[in-house]
Amino acid sequence: MIRAVTTTPYLDQKPGTSGLRKKVRVFQQPNYAENFIQSVFDVIEHERAGATLVIGGDGRFLNREVIQVAIRMAAAAGFARVVVGQGGILSTPAASNLIRKRGALGGLILSASHNPGGPTEDFGIKYNVSNGGPAPENITDAIYARTKVIDTWYAADTPDIDLDTLGEVQVAGMTVEVVDPVADYAELMETLFDFDAIRASKLTMAFDAMSAVTGPYATEILERRLGFAPGTVRNGTPLPDFGGHHPDPNLVHARALYDTMMGEGAPDFGAASDGDGDRNLIIGRGRFVTPSDSLAMLAANAHLAPGYAGGLKGIARSMPTSAAADRVAAELGIPAYETPTGWKFFGNLLDAGMATICGEESAGTGSDHVREKDGLWAVLLWLNILAATGKSVDELAREHWARFGRNYYARHDYEGVDSSAADTLMRDLRGKLATLPGTMIGALTIAQADDFAYTDPTDSSTSANQGVRILFEGGSRVVFRLSGTGTSGATLRVYLERYEPATGDLDANTGKMLADIVAAADELAGIRLHTGRSEPDVVT
Ligand code: VG1
Ligand code: CO
């Protein structure tokens, strides 16, 4: 039997950079999750009959409850099959892979990614389309429009299913298949990388799963299949509140890993991932690699892995990501693309075969093997490169800079800023962009200042207001934008970059190298003035 439940719209269900993210207590309001899921199903009304839907999440608080709701609603919506990860678990890249492998219409990924979890923290729902990637803006806009007028949601009147037992069950005429969340993903990784060479290299490593979704994936792939020592994977059990930690693999929240890698007796290689498994932090023994540099170094060496032996078609990066990858693309003689922040903008380039590797400064790297960024993929590509070259991370980094020059880079985040103060800051900045070119700030001359707009080369769709860029003469720059993934107040992100040519100072302190750009950023945007903050909350 199908239940039709009358509801009223919530007006705050606009998907952000990566799906709908809110506090758990917001999701616990009557009909809140149901309204959003029904809005997704309404937008795909003409395609869903007889189709397959993938469902899974990062195991955070509310994961199981919302999965049960989504299964009942999918049955009412006419789906023929739901494929769900055992225990409700699917990392974001594993979900992307399953959607592609099963020819699914799409998937619901339940995660707030790098945001903390637990009863007082964050939850999220994201819809991915049939290529395995996040729904593009025309679809997220349609979902949002639907949430504003929705009046009914539908669900099969059935009990919860057993999410922990592998196999198939029927829910009101729909098949629900509970699958091993790791198996297909691990198999895909074996096709891309030389597992034998990694095993034979006798490299040592530490992987911090941050009590989030990558635990089971990393344990299976690193410890079981690649033979890394037991205990290589730390915090390997997914917990609903991530052990009370912030599952964001950066130098602040993955501090313990950083200390291990900088300390006595550090292993060769260190890495961490985030809540839903799509990010990666890379630290070699004694050498932190910025995500922007990691993208460039992976692209420069990808041909050493079997999956990329034929070379790359192109490299794409988000606008705030440093230009290090562009230099690699130029040398390889392949196109470089600059997209707005968020993985949804890479999907068309990957589908069209225009780019092979993509990345973001926020610790996201991936390729055309799925349509999401992929934390463990980046770790395995690094391991493959280390095994193939016999070099250390530090050696590879130094050689890279000696060849391409170095893009010193940092991101300063001001979190929990009053929203109207943040809006005023951005508005004032946008208001003066036209007057900036040619002016000097300290010793820096502004060459160009604009608000980044993107036209997708495959379908000509446009996205405006994607972040303010101030480009200085000589290749340095500062970028300002407001986060689209936060759940309280505003987060101002200030991206700082300075290019030092191969003949320049390649082993300097990043803070020192960026000091004049930091000062210029404050002078340009009035950060102290508007936010009352003298220091960022997080520097990555
Ligand atoms: C942030 C990052 C962005 C990333 C997004 C989703 O967005 O800056 O690069 O794609 O998170 O990543 P924002 O709008 O807060 O800057 V995840 O791992 O949270 O899905
Ligand atoms: Co994530």
Description:
Keywords: Isomerase, Magnesium, Metal-binding, Phosphoprotein. Its cofactor is Mg(2+). It catalyses: alpha-D-glucose 1-phosphate = alpha-D-glucose 6-phosphate. This protein is an alpha/beta fold and 540 residues long. It has 3 domains: 178 residues, Alpha-D-Glucose-1,6-Bisphosphate, subunit A, domain 3 (Alpha-D-Glucose-1,6-Bisphosphate, Chain A, domain 3, 3-Layer(aba) Sandwich); 220 residues, Alpha-D-Glucose-1,6-Bisphosphate, Chain A, domain 3, CATH 3.40.120; 134 residues, TATA-Binding Protein (2-Layer Sandwich). Helices cover 32% and strands 25% of the residues. The protein contains 17 helices and 27 strands. The strands form 6 sheets. It has a 7-stranded mixed sheet, with helices on both faces. Strands 20-21-24-25-26-19-27 form a 7-stranded antiparallel sheet. Helix 2 crosses helix 3, helix 7 packs across helix 13 and helix 10 packs parallel to helix 11. The termini are far apart. Alpha-D-glucose-1-phosphate-6-vanadate binds next to loops.
Label this structure with key terms:
540 residues, alpha/beta, Alpha-D-Glucose-1,6-Bisphosphate, Chain A, domain 3, TATA-Binding Protein, seven-stranded mixed β-sheet, seven-stranded antiparallel β-sheet, 27 strands, 32% helix, globular, binds alpha-D-glucose-1-phosphate-6-vanadate, binds cobalt (II) ion, magnesium, isomerase, A-D-PHexomutase_CS
